[in-house]
Amino acid sequence: MRALRTWRDGHADRRSAQFPYEVVTRHVQRSGKHHLSAQVIEQLVDARRDLAAQDDLLTRFLDCLLDKHDGTYRYDTYLSLPVLRDLVTGPAAVLSPMELAGLLVADVLRFEVEALHGRHDLLPDGRPSVRTVRKRIRHGLGHLYRHGTPSPTRRDWNPEQPEQADEILAALPSSGVPLVRARLAMTVHPVHVLHDEYMFIRILQSYETVFTGLVGSAAEALHRLRAADVAGAAGCLADAATALERAGLLFTLLATMDPSAFRHFRDFTEGASAIQSEYYKRFELTCGTPPGERLSSPAFGSVPVVLEEARHGRDTITRAYLDIRRSNPEMLPALDTALARLERAHQRWKSTHHSLATRMLGDASGSGYTAGVPYLKDCLDNRLFWGIGTDLTTAEVRHADLT
Ligand code: HEM
């Protein structure tokens, strides 16, 4: 409250005062967005009414933070995606999606190690055991290593030992760009105060960033196919497959979440579900127009903007592929390999997601109002490139090890 008042006074005196993004975010991390006091909400609403119109970032930040108050709470605002996304998309992008995806995971590991040593008091309830933190460090560093971050080679980390904790913290990648550090510091707004929600939010954000990269790779592949650059297109599809395959370890990391903590904080996340992820569906749509049954299901009903695009019959990789099959069939083998690999990576992603949801959710319904696990099981039958007729089956896909 004090920080908000100082900021408002600064504005009134025409002194340039920076909105206390980090202080406000830390307050939310100590109380939970669902439990903000009426006084704090009032101050934030006033700030938005009086000043946010002059500042686009502040508007986006407050629209996310006040989503529950405004009745606009959904997946994007829960994850602060409107505040994060322009780091990697559009003309002002300062990072590649894969770089941001890695920084978000590094931030989780930093949060874990510092909590273990009592160096912060954020999301203070339900701290994990030392054993669980060790597992998180192992999976998290393994993931970063697969993304090309130089990682110390030790495999049996004991983060509870102060010197090892410092070694881990020193090894974690961080951004040298102040803008990126500032955005990271203002984009975890948990609904409650349970420790594991921090990791949950960051992993969803990291996946969303990967999906953003997938949309870019798929669009580039389509562009190259239309320019008859089949080798280039195959390269873009291979990039997309690699990104999805590497991201698989994030589910392993998330599987260390305490299911009872998850069930507790999800009491307050009703209405925000990844079924509303526009980039996941946009990627699917760039690969091929989904069959009518899927378009008319909650899968696309939850993303009206993308559904509209699908109804306008936009160009897809499947269509471009079928055109090449008619005109230059000799070009297809390189493409077939890349498409099959991407299809497999996507199937495997869905399969691991389904296993994780089974473990965390049991027979509860989804926060996006589907039946939950049965909905995800049905999704396993969908294929990105169903219109081409690749013969991959669910049975070919190995279930990832979540232990
Ligand atoms: C505790 C972990 C998770 C559980 C229990 C879970 C559960 C679910 C459920 C039940 C649905 C169906 C829609 C609904 O009613 O909400 C769903 C959909 C979805 N989830 Fe998750 N999820 C988890 C983690 C993740 C993560 C980390 C991501 C990565 C972004 C993700 C991405 C998706 C996507 C993209 C869909 C839409 C699938 C489609 O419509 O085809 N989920 N999830």
What does this structure look like?
The chain has about 400 residues and is mainly α. The chain has two domains: about 1-85, no CATH class; about 195-395, Methane Monooxygenase Hydroxylase, Chain G, domain 1. The protein has 21 helices and no strands. The chain has helices at about 1-10, 20-30, 40-50, 55-65, 65-70, 75-80, 80-85, 95-115, 130-145, 160-170, 180-185, 195-225, 230-255, 260-265, 280-285, 290-295, 300, 305-310, 315-325, 330-360, 375-380. The longest helix has about 30 residues, at about 195-225. It is globular and about 70 Å long. Mean pLDDT is about 90; it is low at about 390-400. Protoporphyrin IX containing FE (HEM) binds near residues 299, 357 and 369.
Features:
single chain; 403 residues; mainly alpha; Methane Monooxygenase Hydroxylase, Chain G, domain 1; 2 domains; 21 helices; 62% helix; globular; binds protoporphyrin IX containing FE
Bound molecules: protoporphyrin IX containing FE
Strand content: under 5%
Q: Note the run of SSEs as H and E.
A: HHHHHHHHHHHHHHHHHHHHH
The third-level CATH topology of the largest domain is Methane Monooxygenase Hydroxylase, Chain G, domain 1
**Which structural class best describes the helix and strand composition?**
mainly alpha
Give the structure's gist in a few sentences.
The protein has 403 residues and is mostly helical. 62% of the residues lie in helices and 0% in strands. It contains 21 helices and no strands.
